[in-house]
Amino acid sequence: PSLLPFRLFRLTITSVPSARRTELIPLAGRSMVSTTPMLLFLSSAGVRRAVGRFGPSVATAFLNAPTSTVMPMATRQQPLSTRFMSTDAPAEEKTEEEKAAIKAQREARKAEKERKKAEKAAKKAAKAAAEEAANRIDDVTYLSASEQDSYEPMGDMSVVMSRSRSGREFVNVGDIGGSDDAKYGPGKTVWLRGRLNSIRVKGGSCFLVLRQNSFDTVQACFFKDKENPEQSAKMIKYLKTLTAESMVDLEGTVTTADVRSASIQDAELVIKRIHSVSKADAMLPFLVEDAARSEKEVEESQDTDRPFPRLGQELRLDHRWLDLRAPANNAIMRVQSAICQLFRESLYSQGFVEIHTPKLVAGESESGAGVFTTDYFGTTACLAQSPQLYKQMAISSDLDRVFEIGPVFRAENSNTRRHLCEFTGLDLEMAINEHYMETLEVVHNMFKHIFENLETRWAKELEVIRTQYESEPVTFTDEPCVLHWPEAMEILKEKEFDMGDELGDLTGAQELALGAAVKEKYGTDFFMLDKYPSNIRPFYTMPDPADARFSNSYDMFIRGQEICSGAQRCHDPELVTEIINQKGIEIGDGLKTYIESFRHGVSPHAGAGIGLERVVFLYLGLDNVRKASMFPRDPNRCTP
């Protein structure tokens, strides 16, 4: 193929003692490319390189050479090694000393190069280490408050392992305020331990909200210090690592402020020190603030650009500890505790003794209710459905008034909003002189004590609950409001319910209708219904002396739903044996000892069993009893 014009030449370099001479031998033109491998092709760029290396004379000689100049045939036929060999005399052979000196110089240059390289790497590593040390935030261990100035003001707290008591005094958020009357007012420096409710870091500033007891919150802030920029930058860096719901220790100075995002609204804390005691995962199953929203608030948001998520009941119960951090849910547990406290207070004041009965029993304690069974060293035992038999045997032991707060187990496959397989029973039993109304009066006084004191002593908790779950205080009468079974039947028939032979149990709808009618007629949410049919009551229920079809039994209701069941007990051993046989119940070892306790003499007595979760659930107007149980057990849930 045709090639662009170019010139080919051969360089012959001859070494002479006094100078270096370069000879340019012009070669053939275009056709020598493929046959002469040792030729140099010079384009215009090649010419420029030649000028730079050999000087302008070489380039001039190359450019002025005639294009027709052709290498003589004799020269072309010489071997390449001969053709490109210098025509000058070979250089003198170096001595061993010279060679050694050259080698030493070469190795010295190499060693110096390696030394400089290592020195540069060392400086770079030292600089990186210094920067890392300056930016590293180490864990902090508080051994003594008197030494805290030597501790970093930020960093994760070492795992609390009871190493020492540092002497730091932690305060409650509720005691902080912006007035001089506050326990910890403006200018006071305090330590707080709480949960990080929220945090916002932007630029050189940070605002966070610390939460205690689920619903006491206070704002804290940090601003970059121009006089100590490095320390401030380190603090901002650490604050960015904190995650919501982490437990933190915070030292700060109280200052007045106008705050709307916390329960303490007239003060905030200026952060001096902050340490994470237990960090929460950055990604949680759900946000506590989402769990704290009312159903109404969630529903109203659905038509907006940013609808709030709906948290399903199963998701909440799977992570119940997180769900209970929501202020209202946490307050429900406190109200549950309050009811137990008030139950005890009232009964103690009325001469009762608290007892603790077995939960492993040899046979069923209730007729008609399913039982959980377990192996008991080769025999079958049951989880107690109630402390009923043992409460009655306590009366036979001359403990005339007893009560118990304990677990109750029911193996009933009831998947309703008001049934649980395990709940807490508030049980009482008392000797009576003549009539079970003596017991109804005691129970009525007890519930009055609970209702009145909840609204006064636990007003804060109720206010928090009612912001998420709307309800009104329970209304009640000063004296017991007792309906008899025939009156209840007439009311329900007026409501167009078919009551049949009037000897069947009430349905949920009938109970609600009866509750509404009683509220309208008597102005009370809390009432009692007695004289239930004997065939729907347990074997230990005393029959009505006027009509054996009915019994001296009663239930109690809040807002039309049952919370309590009770009766005068059948304390006559022959009569109770007859009833047991009529109901087709086998008299096992457990019932034999129960009946035997009556053969040794026992006072007439009556009592009641109350479901704690039912009381909480109905008093607060909740939509599901599971909200009133810390870790509910139903047919589909046995964890967490």
Give a quick summary of the entry.
This protein has 640 residues and is α+β, with helices and mostly antiparallel strands.
Features:
single chain; 640 residues; alpha+beta; 8-stranded mixed sheet; 5-stranded mixed β-barrel; 19 strands; disordered N terminus
Set out the fold topology:
Elements: E1 7-15, E2 20-26, E3 40-42, H1 44-54, H2 56-64, H3 73-77, H4 80-83, H5 96-135, E4 189-202, E5 205-212, E6 216-223, H6 229-241, E7 247-256, E8 267-278, H7 288-291, H8 295-301, H9 313-318, H10 320-323, H11 327-349, E9 353-354, E10 360-361, E11 373-376, E12 379-383, H12 388-396, E13 401-409, E14 422-431, H13 437-457, H14 459-468, E15 482-484, H15 485-494, H16 508-522, E16 526-530, E17 553-558, E18 561-568, H17 573-582, H18 589-599, E19 605-611, H19 612-619
Parallel strand pairs: 6-8, 9-13, 15-16
Antiparallel strand pairs: 1-2, 1-3, 4-5, 4-7, 5-6, 7-8, 10-12, 11-12, 13-14, 14-19, 16-17, 17-18, 18-19
Helix pairs in contact: 1-2, 11-13, 11-14, 12-18
Written overview of the protein:
This protein is α+β, with helices and mostly antiparallel strands and about 650 residues long. Helices cover about 35% and strands about 20% of the residues. The chain has 19 helices and 19 strands. The protein has helices at about 45-55, 55-65, 75, 80-85, 95-135, 230-240, 290, 295-300, 315-320, 320-325, 325-350, 390-395, 435-455, 460-470, 485-495, 510-520, 575-580, 590-600, 610-620, and strands at about 5-15, 20-25, 40, 190-200, 205-210, 215-225, 245-255, 265-280, 355, 360, 375, 380-385, 400-410, 420-430, 480-485, 525-530, 555-560, 560-570, 605-610. The strands form four sheets. An eight-stranded mixed beta sheet has the order 9-13-14-19-18-17-16-15, sandwiched between helices. Strands 4-5-6-8-7 form a five-stranded mixed β-barrel. A three-stranded antiparallel beta sheet has the order 2-1-3. A hairpin with a 2-residue loop joins strand 11 and strand 12 (about 380-385). Helix 12 runs parallel beside helix 18. The two termini are about 85 Å apart.
